[in-house]
Amino acid sequence: MRLSMKWLFWFIGVGIYVMFLGGVFYYNLFKWTFDEKLKQDVIETVKVYAPTMRNGLLNSPKAISFEEYDIMMSLAKDERITSMLYLSRQGTIRWHKESRFMGMTWDDYRAQVPPPTDAIAQAYTSKMPKVRQVSGEPFYEIAIPFSVRGDIIGIIDLLVSRAGAEVLIGSAMRKYVFGALGVLFLLGLPLYFFLHHYILSPMDLLRDSVEGVSLKNFELRFADRSDEIGEVAAAINRLMGKMKVEIEGISNRDRTYKEAEQRWWRSLLSIIVPSTNYVIVVDENNSILYANFELAQGADPKNVHLLDVVDSQQQTLLRLVGQAFEMPDSPVEGEAVFKNQNFNVKVLHVGQTADTNRTLILFFPKPVIG
What we know:
By secondary structure, the chain is an alpha+beta fold. The protein has two domains: 3-168, PAS domain (Beta-Lactamase, 2-Layer Sandwich), CATH 3.30.450.20; 273-365, Beta-Lactamase. 52% of the residues lie in helices and 19% in strands. It has eight helices and ten strands. It has helices at 3-59, 66-76, 106-112, 119-126, 163-211, 228-272, 306-309, 315-326, and strands at residues 81-88, 93-96, 130-133, 139-148, 151-161, 278-282, 288-291, 332-338, 341-350, 358-365. Strand 4 and strand 5 form a beta hairpin.
């Protein structure tokens, strides 16, 4: 996989991870904010009517006044409020949307309709508004007490739906997602430009420069850079310099060894092989190391193959050479035509490794009979 694709997947993965963490944080933040706003709005709405309701509780403790009734009807029309219970000082139900409960004591009502939470009891005890979330339901129970000189004279209990808050939270989260994607995109553009301009493009140039290197050209054509890619290029350049020196050293050693071996064969064979005989010594590549006769005109004496001297049509001689390869260290004898003359031939193949294999081919005249 290319580095650009790895970066893209990494960037998208990290972006999604950060968006998820941010989404969890902002969801809880939005939930807390909008839920608190919902609670405070409902409480503030009731506080607006609190003086009128307090006067009604004091002036008409047994029956709800017209002003209080109007307030109850106004609150009942609020879409956020799903149910409402209005209690008097005596613990009787002062108002309920179902008239059958009006005038019923709190204990009797609680026996028929259990309260969803303990908000009323907590509000009565603390003399402060109390909010409790209904377990497993998208509702808040808000109990608001009315007191005069520290005495509770009435309580209004509201069951408030969170549907409106959920809508606001959903809208805010959608805006967050679109905003986060926009930020991720805008952040990715300069980062990708940096990656492409300062990393990917120089690496492509370095790759092309390395591919242009060969055994004949050890020069790395790459512009000098002061960053890490420049350091890698410099290291490659130094490596190629060392390789060039080592290859030249190996070539010089091979050339020196070959020249020494040629001198050794020349000195040895010039003594033991008569001038009327022809001898050829070839290496592991069937290149001629030594021959006691002049090679073909125009042939490179440093790079002459056996087939440049021996005609490929001379199947008998080539067969003898093949037999010698199959029987190392044992001479193979036969007859062959060489330089338009019939000769007896001896072929000897010696050597233990591929680098030291040598083949000696000796042509000597047939003995004269008579």
